[in-house]
């Protein structure tokens, strides 16, 4: 994660965690209905995103203060048959599954059957690389374990045949650890594969059974489950991709390859119910929910922006808890803004449309000041912006450049961010300080970062800081 002063970072994330905890005790406020202008702007935003990415359809649901503001279907659930999308159409939700997996783990912790500081090797002795990793580090994505979803074996087999846990783990069994556990954040689906296995080992039940009985059913999520389980959906969207300019059905992952990392299918209604139940302490205890909503503290004392199955950050000053999901042909997002009890669900049946970025755009429709905070200001030098793109590309690739004269710690912080999030999808000029420092915003999907930099006399990048919004 980006470099922050330790004290500033602690204050930043302590405030986020506190706002999430206070949301447990907020009275349910009466939510004003959407205005005609807001509804029209939401429709326009969704339809334009679908058009731009050639996505067949989507379902959007927005709830605030316990009241449903919008529940709407767009386009087609399946292109080949022309089947229309409906508000209760089910979608693969990918990594949104991770917060349900985290809740299943925390329920076992609450029951005294498991400790967050237990070594993973206690439950999965066959994986030596995890011997120094704790359950907490799996939840917080700070284990350093390689991601099985990035292996050639996964790409070759995950859509073809079901797999046992041991077969999936074998894809990374011999791979080295990427860093010392707890020293940094790096998203890895292996962490949640292992957590699902731990749930099975401790509970004595298959993961899907345990999840269904103890996590989903008590919330009333009757339309959520593993796609290879007993649950059947009368209206299940088809995932789509674009090949050679044609939108077509995408292949599907075998759920046994992704289990606790992303196997669930759900509906917008069920996800709204989940967000409300989780935030009100009906899934796990208030203390466990606070743990979920509190970012990890790394070995150097700096926090990052991930809790237990949740990203914890801000959008234009508004505290936010969220996760996106992506499987072949699907993109999904569940965002909650706890201070105003606002939940936004976006489900899309095309992999090219980033549902989390669309969710963040819908938030900005409801909060024009947030959109203004991300708008460019006058005075941008297009040549300098292009140079910034070149610097970021070089840092992402780890290639030496005479144009980059950063201190090692600053270089590493930037490289870590780019390693975690990829290249930014937008660079927005936000002005210049009197000492010549330039200010930009960088957008990675739904996340914004402040990027401030200065140049040496010859034009080289001399100093830079990147901080979460």
Automatic annotation (TrEMBL):
Residues 1-31 form the signal peptide. Keywords: Signal. Residues 42-359 form the Beta-lactamase-related domain. It comes from the Bacteria. InterPro entries: AmpC-like, Beta-lactam-related, Beta-lactam/transpept-like. The keyword Ribosomal protein does not apply. The keyword Zinc does not apply. This is Beta-lactamase-related domain-containing protein. It comes from Ideonella azotifigens.
